[in-house]
Specification:
heterodimer; A: about 260 residues; alpha/beta; Rossmann fold; 6-stranded mixed beta sheet; 4-stranded antiparallel beta sheet; 9 helices; about 25% strand; B: about 425 residues; 2 domains; 10-stranded mixed beta sheet; 7 helices; 20 strands; about 40% strand; globular; binds adenosine-5'-diphosphate; binds magnesium ion
Chain lengths: ~260, ~425
């Protein structure tokens, strides 16, 4: 579904991602860990094609289509979607309008379809009438983002910290909708969607029963493995140490072979 | 102030340039008496076919459906006026003066006759019965919830249209006015001078929604003021989306009564070489009086806009807030935002927020991430920017205003 090859990305004059490669197959969900500032959000923004993120080397293919130079909306048309960590506020544009846009309607009322989707995320009609992200609490931002994805229903979905600042009850709710969006309720062979999730907690990952986890350090994927194992390692030893253990583990394995 | 005194003061102010805005040579425009009078109409839809669309664009409903009264002045002739609601009066100010002895006292009570040469011109012209304008009044206790519509229309080249409007909401009454100003396509150059004086009596309410639908050759100098008594409310919504040559206005609301309230909401989309200097001022004299001034300005091409707002707090526990935002769509346009606050005692609160900038890239990208193209995203943001939620209108009027707003917007984005 998504193939990233030797991707190097600059923001301003700084190189943030270096020679990064990653493959995510149809039906898979991957989790990306990493310390603050290591470049996780940068990776997602680059995949979306935001102009501040300059690809200086490497390529990205989505569903076999080379998308490295496509504008954002064309990538979205191909099936890419994202829940933002810190989406901007837009004055005068209501959340309900954003949902309509995500549904692909040019103009639309906040009708029963929109209201129905919102209800699934415990979002009221009054809330749909608020300017998007303006004065939203941390948890409200996350639910609003996932609501927009629910309307958009993308094939490859990126979640940038969908669970940060969300209370336990709403984590359940969000996890539920994410499961559905990512086809996790289906038999593995029936899963059409795929996703990449940035998170700092294990709970969403367990909720989704992710297939693979990666640790990013300093703009590179430093180690990859089974989600449970990586989480345990990170929780117990921290990112750096986890990566070291990962490396020695790999060396040991290589030694054995 | 008697008539003689007024005329004297006007005479003295004849050469007094306005403090703001480019000076206009009034004598370059012709007065009403130099033209033939336009024939009165039996109904609004008798207005020439070729102008019907311009009426609509100014928010006027030619069928008069959903309106409790209508008024139409073409150049300097009042061609139609009708009230359909008991307790509502709507007619030319010239006629109203003949009907009511007391009306004289309202003239120049809110706007000083010697404010500048434009006000002076009106007073001196009134003498010759060339002015007209509308007189709208709701009787005490009458709630005229269906809107009243009035339209000032220019169809003659080089004309100087002069109007003196008086609006009175008597005690406990309610008036909702939709007013549009429009001009025929064929007119390349014209001047509009309009004095409007509003009186909101104790416990009364006036909402005033004004659409300016001028054209590239029209110069506009409205002079408006509002006097609001105890528990009175005045809400103004001003919309300018179409081109204009130059516009300068600075309406003032005097909240003289206890708990008097004034709201000004202004939406301006400035095109071409327009020179616009537009402000709103509230003087909070009454205890507990309140004002809110909201403005949204978009400047494109070579337009230059000065967006002013001013709240003066004088009464105990007065409260005022200014929110003005400008959006730049061109590097050759100019927006100058000037919010002012003046407090003259301790126990009051005045605040303002102002910002001018271009469309945030981030916002465009966010919308593109939901599937919109760059152009579509830009238009959604512009619409959102201009979309001030108009509060305080009855539901039907709110819907109507929204429709008018959408219609104006359609022409730009
Ligand atoms: N627009 C930007 N301009 C300059 N530096 C940026 C910008 N965005 C991100 N960075 C920098 O790039 C690095 C990676 O940031 P980010 O991808 O947001 O990290 P993460 O999501 O892993 O916390 C950080 O050092 C951050 O300060
Ligand atoms: Mg981040």
């Amino acid at each position: 579904m998504l193939e990233i090859k030797n991707l190097t990305v600059q923001v301003g004059c700084r190189e943030i991602l270096r020679d990064l490669s990653l493959n995510i197959e149809r039906g898979e969900v991957h989790v990306l860990f990493g310390p603050n500032g290591c470049g996780k959000t940068t990776l997602l923004m680059t995949l979306l094609g935001f102009p501040n993120y300059k690809v200086t080397r490497g390529s990205v293919r989505l569903k076999g289509v080379e998308i490295t130079t496509l504008p954002t909306n064309e990538r979205v048309r191909l099936g890419l979607g994202m829940s933002f960590q810190h989406p901007p506020e837009i004055r005068g544009v209501k959340l309900g309008e954003m949902v309509n846009i995500a549904l692909g309607r040019k103009e639309g009322e906040i009708d029963s379809e929109v209201v129905g989707l919102a209800r699934r995320l415990n979002i009221s009609v009054a809330f749909l009438n608020r300017d998007v992200n303006l004065g939203f609490s941390g948890g409200e931002v996350k639910r609003s983002e996932i609501l927009q994805l629910l309307a958009q229903s993308p094939d490859f979905i990126m979640f940038d910290e969908p669970d940060s600042g969300v209370d336990i009850e709403n984590i359940e709710l969000i996890g539920e909708v994410m499961r559905e969006l990512l086809d996790r309720n289906k038999m593995p062979s029936r899963r059409e969607k795929a996703g990449l999730i940035i998170t700092h907690s294990g709970s969403i990952m367990r909720h989704l029963n992710a297939d693979r986890a990666h640790v990013m350090l300093d703009g590179r994927i430093a180690c990859s493995g089974m989600p449970d194992e990586i989480t345990r390692n990170v929780m117990a030893n921290g990112f750096e140490r986890c990566v070291e253990l990962c490396k020695t583990g790999r060396e040991n394995k290589e030694g054995l072979e | 102030m008697n008539k003689k005194e007024r005329v004297e003061r006007a005479e003295r102010a004849k050469g007094k340039k306005a403090a703001l805005g480019e000076d206009i040579a009034i004598e370059n425009f012709t007065a009403g008496k130099e033209h033939e009078e336009h024939e009165p109409l039996n109904s609004l839809d008798e207005f020439p076919e070729k102008y019907q669309q311009d009426l609509l664009n100014a928010g006027i409903e030619p069928s008069e459906k959903g309106r409790s009264g209508s008024f139409l002045q073409r150049d300097c002739s009042v061609v139609f006026s009708a009230a359909k609601f008991p307790g509502l009066e709507i007619k030319s100010t010239t006629d109203a003066l003949k009907d009511h002895d007391w009306l004289n006292e309202y003239f120049w009570r809110a706007v000083p006759v010697d404010a500048d040469k434009y006000t002076a011109e009106l007073e001196l012209d009134e003498d010759q019965e060339q002015t007209n304008g509308y007189f709208i009044r709701s009787e005490a206790g009458r709630k005229v919830t269906m809107p009243v519509q009035s339209c000032l229309f220019i169809t003659t080249e080089k004309i100087g249209q002069k109007v003196h409007n008086i609006v009175i909401a008597e005690e406990g009454s309610e008036l909702h006015i939709i007013t549009g100003c429009s001009v025929a396509h064929a007119v390349n150059s014209a001047l509009h001078l309009g004095v409007s004086e509003f009186f909101v009596k104790r416990g009364a309410k006036i909402t005033f929604t004004m659409i300016h639908n001028w054209s590239r050759g029209v110069e506009v100098r409205p002079r408006s003021a509002v006097v609001i008594e105890d528990d009175g409310t005045f809400i103004s919504n001003y919309i300018l989306m179409t081109p204009v040559k130059s516009l300068q206005m600075y309406p003032t609301a005097y909240c003289v009564g206890r708990n008097a309230r004034a709201t000004f909401q202004t939406v301006i989309y400035a095109h071409g070489d327009a020179r616009i200097d537009s402000g709103s001022r509230a003087v909070l004299q009454g205890a507990g009086s309140r004002a809110e001034i909201i403005s949204r300005v978009i400047a494109t091409e070579n337009a230059k806009v000065v967006a002013r707002s001013d709240v003066v707090g004088e009464g105990e526990n007065a409260k005022g807030h200014i929110e003005c935002q400008g959006l730049m769509l061109s590097d050759t346009a100019e927006v100058e935002s000037i919010p002012e606050l003046k407090a003259t005692r301790r126990d009051l609160v005045l605040s303002h927020e102002a910002a001018v900038g271009k469309i945030a890239e981030e916002e465009i990208q966010y919308l593109m991430a939901r599937g919109l193209s760059e152009e579509e995203a830009t238009s959604v943001i512009i619409r959102g920017f201009l979309n001030v939620d108009i509060t305080g209108l009855p539901e039907a009027l709110a819907r109507e205003t929204k429709k008018m707003f959408e219609m104006s917007l359609e022409k730009v984005v």
